Amino acid sequence: DIQMTQSPSSLSASVGDRVTITCRASQTITRYLNWYQQKPGKAPKLLIYAASSLQSGVPSRFSGSGSGTDFTLTISSLQPDDFATYYCQQCYSTPVTFGQGTRLEIK
Amino acid sequence: EVQLVESGGGLVQPGGSLRLSCAASGFTFGTFWMNWVRQAPGKGLEWVANINQDGSEIYYVDSVKGRFTVSRDNAKNSLYLQLNSLRLEDTAMYYCARLTPGSYGYYRDYWGQGTLVTVSS
Questions:
Q1: Could A92 and B114 be called an inter-chain contact, meaning their C-beta atoms sit closer than 8 Å?
Q2: Do strands A19-25 and A70-75 pair parallel, antiparallel, or not at all (unpaired)?
Q3: Do B102 and A53 touch (CB under 8 A)?
Q4: Comparing C-alpha atoms, which of B91, A59, B75 is closest to residue B83?
Q5: Distance from CA of A93 to the nearest CA of B (A)
Q6: B65: buried, middle or exposed (CB in 10 Å: 19+, 13-18, 0-12)?
Q7: B45 touches chain A (CB under 8 A)
């Protein structure tokens, strides 16, 4: 199985900050990488697919990059609504696997 | 508007069974792969099972093989997950999600609100 490792596991930041979350795969997954946002008590929401494609309706302050084994999710200017947990997920091979999550908290 | 609504969760003893349902609306259900993802309390996301459009291709995570069965009824726009021989570690929120094909694999673009399964004696 492909292991997905996110860093950091938690992060404190302020409104307006630029934030980057990284995700590393245990083997190459080219661009088979998606990012989700989850708020407490809610279902995950798709943000980014194919490593860098922005899902319809997602604000442009979210962006994704990377290929191979190393990927990043960047939020250019944090808004109050962005405080949540973020997960990367590989869809290169079955079983699909998720990172352990990065909890983004208000500083 | 795409909607996915899960039901069927509840409290069950170890070794027991449950059948989860996911009612879909707002899209042509029979043309999409569907899947189940679960999340244990306070933990991360775990993929459980995929099923293709006509039910002829099915995949499971190893930990549920032989115990869980995914199925669908396209006439009823519904997805199901039969959970048998339940274990304490199956306690989780179970989400159904639609799988949409992209240039690099499938992504889960719509999710239900989840249904909670609690396995406890």
A1: no
A2: antiparallel
A3: yes
A4: B91
A5: 9
A6: exposed
A7: yes
Q: How much of chain B is helix, strand and coil, in % rounded to 5?
A: 10, 55, 35
At B58, which helix (H) or strand (E)? strand B58-60
- What Rg do the C-alpha atoms of chain A give, in angstroms? 13
Structure tokens at A55: 């899902």
**Residues of chain A contacting residue B108, judged by C-beta atoms under 8 Å apart:** 34, 36, 44, 46, 89
Instruction: Determine the pLDDT at residue A73.
Output: 98
The tokens for B20 are 């989860």
Nearest to A43 among B46, B47, B113 (CB): B113
What tens digit of pLDDT does each residue of A41-93 get?
999 999 999 999 999 999 999 999 999 999 999 999 999 999 999 999 999 99
Distance from CA of residue A87 to its chain's centroid? 5
The pLDDT of residue A107 is: 86
CB A1 within 8 A of CB A8: no
End-to-end CA distance of chain A: 36
Q: Residue B6 — φ and ψ, nearest 5°?
A: -90, 155
* Chain B residue with minimum CA distance to A41: B113
Residue type, A45: K
Residue A2 CB neighbours (<10 A): 18
Best B45, B57, B110, B115 member to test A by mutation, with max A CBs in 10 Å, is: B45
- Per residue in B24-47, pLDDT (tens digit) is 999 999 999 999 999 999 999 999
